[in-house]
Amino acid sequence: MTTPDHERVRPPTGDGFADSVTVAFGDPKADVYALARLGIVPGAGPRVSALALLCSGGRPVAAVAQGQIEVPAPDWAGIEAAGVRMEANEPLRAWRVAFTAEAASFDVRCSAVIPPVELGADSPAALAGGMQGYDQLVRVTGTATVGARERKVAALGQRTHAWGIADWDRMESVRTVGAWLGEDRAVGLQAVRLLGEEGARALSEARLSTTYDDEGRQRRAGLELWEQTDSEYPHRLAGEVVCGSTLDLGALRLDTAFFHFRMEGQEGAGRYDLLRRVEAAG
Q1: In whole angstroms, how far apart are CA 219 and each of 29, 226, 259?
Q2: Residue 22 and which of 48, 91, 114, 263 are 20 to 30 A apart at CA?
Q3: Spatial separation of the C-alpha atoms in residues 253 and 232, rounded to whole Å
Q4: Could you give the 3-state DSSP secondary structure of residue 97?
């Protein structure tokens, strides 16, 4: 069971351990789509990584990807690095997230719509990839500034707290999909590909199909969600990219994309991330 104590930096369990919080949201009316992530490598000499992306007009307007940042005593109660700031105003219930860059910025408050949905240590995705944690659908309000224009943000999004030792010796890629269709309906999926074998199921079964462009970036996606193995029909989610970017993370490549999703008469924003290893040049 997830408790407010889980909002603290998790104790390391070995070499390569990391603890991260990611917040993503999309407001089609304001034409603002954003992602912010801070990662902490705890220990005697803690280090922090910062990743943020802000899109508008169908393109990225501000981004940062920086690692190995010295932050004394990093704490999820309040932490800032490379222009990304996160505060926990009320653990598991309310947070503030901000990102400031030269060309654009945002400053939003997030409030939990649902209790944490756990990705336990014994879940298929955690067993395959080495990470565990929890997700929450959140309501997002605040402002974003693109150029000299300030826009009010009122949207749905997702907050993820994850920790563990990602086993990139075994993993080929990780796909993360979040669709925020309404306060009464959201879809989340994490699929880990291990040496060519794809694993991770939601409900009884989840089937993800993706259309890519010539650069291998995700352009369209479809999900079939089966409630039971003997269900006559699945729930179907479909979407296409609105904006996104490719970020170089050293040994890894992140294709992060914001999507417009549709499911059974409901529409909303969402996110589809593809994180994969970069093959070394021969």
Answers
A1: 21, 24, 9
A2: 263
A3: 38
A4: strand
**Cα distance between residue 22 and residue 9, in whole Å:** 14
Quickly tell me which residue has 């669709």 as its tokens: 179
Coil/strand/helix, residue 183: coil
Residue 10 burial (C-beta neighbours within 10 Å; 0-12, 13-18, 19+): buried
Q: What is 146-160 written as a DSSP string?
A: ETTEEEEEEEEEEEE
Phi, psi of 126 (to 5 degrees): -70, -40
Residue 273 in this model has a pLDDT that exceeds 70: yes
Q: Are 26 and 241 in contact (CB under 8 A)?
A: no
Residue-level pLDDT at 230:
72
The pLDDT, as a whole number, for residue 204 is 63
Residue 201, pLDDT score: 35
Q: How far is CA 252 from the centre of its chain?
A: 16
Give the residue among 175, 189, 271 at the shortest CA–CA distance from 235: 189
Q: Is the dihedral of CA 118, 178, 127, 252 positive or negative?
A: negative
- Please write the tens of the pLDDT for every residue from 177-229: 999 999 988 998 887 765 433 333 345 688 899 999 999 999 999 999 887 77
**Nearest-angstrom CA–CA distance, 175 and 270:** 13
- For residue 7, give the 3-state DSSP assignment: helix
pLDDT on residue 271: 97
Amino acid at the residue 14: G
Contacts of residue 186, Cβ cutoff 8 Å, sequence gap at least 6: 114, 137, 156, 158, 178, 179, 180
What does the pLDDT look like over 145-186, one tens digit per residue?
A: 998 899 999 999 999 999 999 988 888 899 999 999 999 889
Separation of alpha carbons 142 and 136, rounded Å: 18
Tell me: pLDDT of 280 over 70: no
